[in-house]
């Protein structure tokens, strides 16, 4: 018992650690979260994959051994105790009973009548009577098989542990990413601190992926249509959603996540050398495109067709709107600090519908948490605005540094005439404001070109989790036995009553004794009620 208590305490502490500390995450996440010192301490203890460590499995093994020894030593005794039904009580044992009452009766009722009155008050009890040394003993039992509760509870815990051990040794749980229209058969998972892979005995094809969003932009439901291909044959096609997995050959296939499956991306590159030059660049998500002209590279990391943001101007208000597709990339180049950029395809439209120009988010650290908005000013989807910007820059370059605002205004007028002639658009005032903003902003960007999302062909991937848990049914059986055993322990106390009758010259002396192993207060009420009923039956002398 002492060993079992110590093992349970240690396992409880370990389980709390395993619950609080997320298991089987990427090692870089752990390093960033805990720092080098604690990262190596936790890693050396195996806390990142605790349930597969040798020490945790050893603790489980000792607990299983302890439970087995406990059952081996005590079950025979318990079975013998439940089968035994000693009816007689010696005088010393009788006097030590906590619940004890006596009657002294005249010769009014026979022994058989007294016993019958006792039996009549205890419906559903088991009785046994015996004569010994001139005394008549009647024993009544209810819940005499209560020891089965202890046996079943301990056996159930052992069964659950065995089921868990089977799952650890012969089961697996890994992730698979399948793009729409493609097939996969390999899962990846963390084994300790290393990544490992495992080939499935079948292939999984994602036919389609659909997703619904809440008004806030959060995913409402995502659904994958999957086909299982076994030995080159399509054997099963089914939809799966979260918490409704697909089951095949002992493997559960869960809908776990989703993301971009390698969408085709088209960038429009705006040259910053004053040439007004633009050109297209074709690439894709998870690919790196290198520009042969400027030497920069674009590593595309993600694409999102929807970006729902709260555009309400007042704090506390909510006004959700889809601001359009975006692409994330890391831009690198000679003499350029690598930065992470999230570029939006559409210009930003304010709450009043006013075009505020194209924009992007820039992170100097490479962490999405550090994104800062950068308003470019120009509507980069409008070729005329790009021409106006370059024309304005060209005319400004001809002015002297000491030129006043009037000269700059005249330069802008000339640029407007170069682009629009004598028929400027109605919103030329807004365009002029954005152009001035761009003149102040764009030259600060250290890049030779500004990559903006121009077109895309979107493809999702469905993130699946494949799990085989051969010990699951064993654990369910053990859990059911555990509940049944606990019900017996808590709701089936062993209650015992004795009626002892001694014949005397004046009549008879009758004693009523009782004891129970649980819920003494309730049994005491039952005993007192029985005494009152028997007292009416017997009558006092």
TrEMBL record:
Taxonomic superkingdom: Bacteria
Residue span(s) of domain ResB-like: 1-528
Transmembrane segments: 54-75, 148-168, 474-492
Topology in the lipid bilayer: Multi-pass membrane protein
InterPro entries: Cyt_c_bgen_Ccs1/CcsB/ResB, ResB-like_domain
Gene Ontology cellular component list: membrane
UniProt entry tagged with the keyword Transmembrane helix: yes
Pfam families, sorted: ResB
KW RNA-binding (keyword) present: no
Gene Ontology biological-process annotations: cytochrome complex assembly
Record keywords: Cytochrome c-type biogenesis, Membrane, Transmembrane, Transmembrane helix
Compartment(s): Membrane
Name the record gives this protein: Cytochrome c biogenesis protein ResB
Organism, scientific name: Mariprofundus aestuarium
Organism ancestry: Bacteria, Pseudomonadati, Pseudomonadota, Candidatius Mariprofundia, Mariprofundales
């Amino acid at each position: 018992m002492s060993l079992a208590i110590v093992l349970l305490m240690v396992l409880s502490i370990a389980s709390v650690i395993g619950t609080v500390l997320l298991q089987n995450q990427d090692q870089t996440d752990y390093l960033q979260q805990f720092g080098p010192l604690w990262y190596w301490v936790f890693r050396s203890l195996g806390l990142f994959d605790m349930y597969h460590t040798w020490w945790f499995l050893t603790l489980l093994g000792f607990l299983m051994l302890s439970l087995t020894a406990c059952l081996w030593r005590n079950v025979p005794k318990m079975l013998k105790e439940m089968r035994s039904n000693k009816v007689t009580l010696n005088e010393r044992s009788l006097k030590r009973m906590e619940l004890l009452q006596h009657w002294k009766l005249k010769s009014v009722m026979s022994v058989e009548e007294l016993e019958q009155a006792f039996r009549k008050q205890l419906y559903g009890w088991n009785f046994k009577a015996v004569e010994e040394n001139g005394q008549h003993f009647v024993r009544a039992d209810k819940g005499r098989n209560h020891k089965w509760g202890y046996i079943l509870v301990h056996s159930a815990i052992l069964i659950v542990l065995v089921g868990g051990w089977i799952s650890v040794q012969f089961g697996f749980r890994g992730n698979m990413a399948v793009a729409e229209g493609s097939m996969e058969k390999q899962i990846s998972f963390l084994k300790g601190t290393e990544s490992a892979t495992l080939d499935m005995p079948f292939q999984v094809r994602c036919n389609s992926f659909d997703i619904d969003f809440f008004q806030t932009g959060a995913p409402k439901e995502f659904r994958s249509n999957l086909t299982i291909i076994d030995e080159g044959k399509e054997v099963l096609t089914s939809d799966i959603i979260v918490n409704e997995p697909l089951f095949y050959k002992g493997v559960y296939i869960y809908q776990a996540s989703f993301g971009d499956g390698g969408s085709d991306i088209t960038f429009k590159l705006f040259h910053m050398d004053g040439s007004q030059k633009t050109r297209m660049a074709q690439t894709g998500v998870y690919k790196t495109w290198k520009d042969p002209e400027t030497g920069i590279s674009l590593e595309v990391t993600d694409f999102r067709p929807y970006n729902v943001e709260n555009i309400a101007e007042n704090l506390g208000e909510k006004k959700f709107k889809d601001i359009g597709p975006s692409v994330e990339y890391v831009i690198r180049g000679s003499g350029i600090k690598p930065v992470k950029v999230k570029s939006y395809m559409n210009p930003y439209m304010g709450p009043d519908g006013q075009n505020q120009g194209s924009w992007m988010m820039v992170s100097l650290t490479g962490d999405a948490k550090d994104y800062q908005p950068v308003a470019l000013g120009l509507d980069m989807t409008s070729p005329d605005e790009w021409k106006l910007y370059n024309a304005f820059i060209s005319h400004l370059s001809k002015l002297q540094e000491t030129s006043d605002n009037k000269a700059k205004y005249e330069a802008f007028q000339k640029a407007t005439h170069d682009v629009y002639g004598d028929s400027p658009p109605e919103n030329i005032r807004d365009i002029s404001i954005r152009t001035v903003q761009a003149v102040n902003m764009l030259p600060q960007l250290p890049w030779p070109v500004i990559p903006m999302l121009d077109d895309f062909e979107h493809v999702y991937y469905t993130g699946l989790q494949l799990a085989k848990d051969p010990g699951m049914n064993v654990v369910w059986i053990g859990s059911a036995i555990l509940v049944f055993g606990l019900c017996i322990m808590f709701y089936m106390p062993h209650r015992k009553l004795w009626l002892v009758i001694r014949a005397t010259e004046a009549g008879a002396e009758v004693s009523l004794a009782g004891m129970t192993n649980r819920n003494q207060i309730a049994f005491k009420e039952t005993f007192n009620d029985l005494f009152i009923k028997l007292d009416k039956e017997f009558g006092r002398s």
